[in-house]
Amino acid sequence: MGEVSVKLTVNGQPRAATVEPRVTLADFLREQLQLTGTHLGCEHGVCGACTVLVDGAAVRSCLMFAVQADGAEVTTIEGIGSPDGGLSAVQSAFRDCHGLQCGFCTPGFVVSVTAFLRDHPNPTDPEIREALSGNLCRCTGYQGIVNAVQQAAGAARRGELR
Amino acid sequence: MTERAADGGARYAGARVHRVEDDRLLTGRGTFVDDVSLPGMLHACFVRSPIARAAIQRIDTSAALALPGVRFVFTAADLNPGVREQWHTTIGKEMPETPRPPLAEGEVRFVGDPVALVVAESRYLAEDAAELVEVDYEPLPAVVDYTEAEHAKALVHESHGSNVIAQLTTVPASAFDEVFASAAHVASETIYQQAYAPVPIEGRGLVVDYSSVTGDLTIHASTQTPHEVRLFCSRLLGMPEERVRVVTRDTGGGFGQKVMVQRDEMCLMLAGPVVGAPLKWVEDRRENLLAAGKSRQEHAAVKMAFDADGAIQAAYIDFVQDCGAYPTPWPLFPAAAVGTFFPGPYRVPRGGFAVKTLYTNTVGRAPYRGPWQFESLAREVLLDIAARQMHVDPAELRRRNLLRRDELPYKNPNGMNYDNISPLETFEQALAMLDYAKFRAEQAEARSAGRYLGVGLANYVEASTPGYGVYGTEPATIRIAPTGRITVYVAGGSSGNSIETTVVQLTADALGAKIEDVDTVQGDTAVTGFGAGTAGSRSGSMTAGAVRETAAVLRERILAIAAHELGVAIEDIELADSRASVRAKPAVGVSFKDLAALADAPAGLEASARYTANSPSIWVNATHVCTCEVDVATGRVQLLRYIVSEDCGPMINPNVVEGQIAGGTVQGIGGVLFEHLAYDDDGNPVATTFMDYLLPTAAEVPAIEFGHIETPSPGPGGYKGVGEGGAIGAPPAVVNAVADALSPFGVKITRLPLGPSQIVALLDR
């Protein structure tokens, strides 16, 4: 199958590659760029584990082809914290509130919540639950995750999301 | 309470400390099996049966093999003869394993049955090639409905001669005819639970890496039991166990599904040494829902006799379970447990059970958190039905029958000897947290306004931490390096249960070390001793024993060296903050770092020991209370409050305890309201995506409130297992809440799930 060249920015770094047109953005990130923090839980757009930011919007990278991200700015879980390994406000809140257990769905939640709080720094509890309903977690029963979003919203209001 | 405040140092057990797992998992630096990438690695994909039962007449692999990049297509004839022995360490060689050929041989027995294994240079190519494998099937009559399996003409396994796998009756129901005939009240129902499944967000997967030069086989596995995978594989392939190494870093949820070695995994073990390169298989969601195993799917005729005061006189359960075509071994054991635990935490003077396990042409049964939770579902639902019949409040009926502390130990009629539990205390605590009387008043007011609220109660007692066989032993090694770093090595098998943090907390306390000085290595069979992994609510309570035994040896050495170095008696030394100091003069001391260097630089200080359980199980109990509102027009159930009061003894980390309870509880809620691993009448699965198999999301789940009662167990630290209870207590609490809300309509709920359509149908009846 013929390959197509793509150029994009991933976590602030320009990347160029050739890919088969059928390769999903998720597989491209995981396999070609070896950014394995983006996880695949269903590969049909329901579980949200593969959520990344594409030009700032939270998208499911299993539902997008890599070629569709040509020219885009992509942020994965590896690009959410500070480069020295420090946690973002959302990541810290997940740790403080026991918002993760096995950690497989966690990157998708962290990315989704980061985008949500950037756009909604003052969410109500129902808004938080609605926003989280696009990501599935099987370990936590969502208790610690909801608490983490509430904690991180405080940081969002202070403009300290990253 | 053996380990409390042994020395003056910081106490980490009992504190909500940050998890050591979190930094890597939050930043995308975890290592799940699909993150393992080895040079030259090949990728596997299964060809699976599209038919519930059929004879395989021909398999043509030529088109698949002709595709560039495809290396192998294996069928049963290639892989199955490689099987040497096939049994689990935790079950034993003597227990009969039901037939589990790696690839389907001659006949497919469920939709999803693996027929061929394609190996190619990429997953994409392997999937392309799998579509090119031509299989001719001759459809055969399938046994789909387990309730008809026993008398069906078709046999799932011809060689077995029957669709009944095994059955067991302790006492026939007729033995209690007189008690039931003379009882003031009798409640009797048949209660059904549908199929649902663990559904970890990470599916199953393996990377098998064989070196033909050294004969070493390394398996990277998504598993709860790395040491079992190693021993099972060594026997399966007839390889010396020391040649097999299993490495498990992060496992993305298991909930029982990743305890046993399944057929797909056997195929990878068999193919790995043949393909000449590392071989990866990671199942996709469809495969997980098709072939990773189902759970629940069972029913029972249950009955209870009561005297005029509502005291239980006898309880009997006649239980039938669907095990699918290829259950993990050994199906009768968890089925029998449904019988033995049916009396629950109540005063039940007489009782018995009969259980039956059946084959069908559906996916095989696999363990799921609280594999025998049907005992609680059936009992608690029946108690509510009985209370309504007797015009007694369901809380009052339970209160009259719950075991009191002064009655312990108490042997239930099936021989289970309960002790160190507090069912009445958790019950009263949970009711007080709700303010039960106030809720009843609100419910009455709401009803007069045409709104239907309900409250559901459920009590259970479960046997955690099995202490028999290989489950009853767990090792640890602790090493203090000359750098001062302390590393604790345990068998592992974490799949989200925070056992890394638990072990670090316990080790820091046991040695008097700072928690930040302690690391842990788990899940690598090359550097850890055999342990049975995460199953049976055992990890925390068993590993606590291993750490205690090992740290005790190391403490003695630390104390001896420190006493010698500081010139005082051993009794005058205390250990705290990674330092040995003189009790009377805390400024005089020596750090663990210096002690390790003094002891044997560069090796440092090291000890290994193994804990052996001192009881056959550790009992743990809880009460679940749930309130809901049911929209009688749409059938929608909204959960309002959810309260769990549990007694898991002292908590090592309350965050972890509450996280385990919440996770299990939401799985139980999902099992009642949303999840159904359904088949159509022809045996076709109809829930193979997350658009059909509905998991609960944050929008459907209420905030969970926790109450704790602390009755120490006889085990190390007084700890108990708490991993499974949420999934046991939640289903009956939710069912009873819905039934209570609908009681003005005379609705009786005896079948699950309770989706909107089922509720509307109940109301229309």
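The first strand of chain A starts at residue 4 and ends at 10.
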